[in-house]
Amino acid sequence: MPAKDIFHDIVTIALQKDGWLITDDPLRLKWGLRELFVDLGAKKLIAAQKGETKIAVEIKSFIGKSPINELENALGQYILYRNILEETEPDRLIYLAVRQSTYQEIFSEPIGVLTIQKSNLHLLVFNDQKEEIIQWIN
Questions:
Q1: Is 3 contained in some domain?
Q2: 26 occurs within a structural domain
């Protein structure tokens, strides 16, 4: 089982504060002979729709020396997980969870905007000090 990201507990708390129930920690994916693990699986009851929304959340700290290398790795992992989920759990959306500072430093600049648009990237932006979700980007 992979090591947890340094912001794992903070994102877990932020999701719970936002009304999400953590269902999987980690969420196990299996495709062929391979087994992969998304950091979190969660669900939220939606009263107006009389149903539930399910998500998978991959948490990335972006604390390495190269933000571009971190982006490349995060995007590859996100796309791989999204592809498997589209086949195995098409009703579950995947989000990449990043700190507010990471969003401002990388995803707000042209390369980040292009990545979000062209890769159909869903982001969960959180404040690591307040342990709160700041923004959902679909």
A1: no
A2: yes
Which tens digits make up the pLDDT trace of 14-50? 999 999 999 999 999 999 999 999 999 999 987 665 6
- Joined tokens for residue 138: 């679909």
Asked if residue 118 is part of any domain, the answer here is: yes
pTM summary value: 0.94
- 130 within some domain: yes
List the one residue out of 97, 100, 96, 95 whose CA is nearest residue 129.
100
- 127 Cβ contact list (under 8 Å, min separation 6): 14, 99, 100, 133, 134
Q: How many domains does the chain divide into? A: 1
Sheet holding 51-59, edge to edge: 21-24, 40-46, 51-59, 92-99, 123-127, 132-137
Tell me the residue length of the chain.
138
**133 Rama sector, left if φ>0, alpha if ψ -120 to 50, beta otherwise:** beta
The CATH number for 47's domain is: 3.40.1350.10
Find the domain containing 64 and state its range.
8-137
Residues 79-130: pLDDT tens digits?
999 999 999 999 999 999 999 999 999 999 999 999 999 999 999 999 999 9
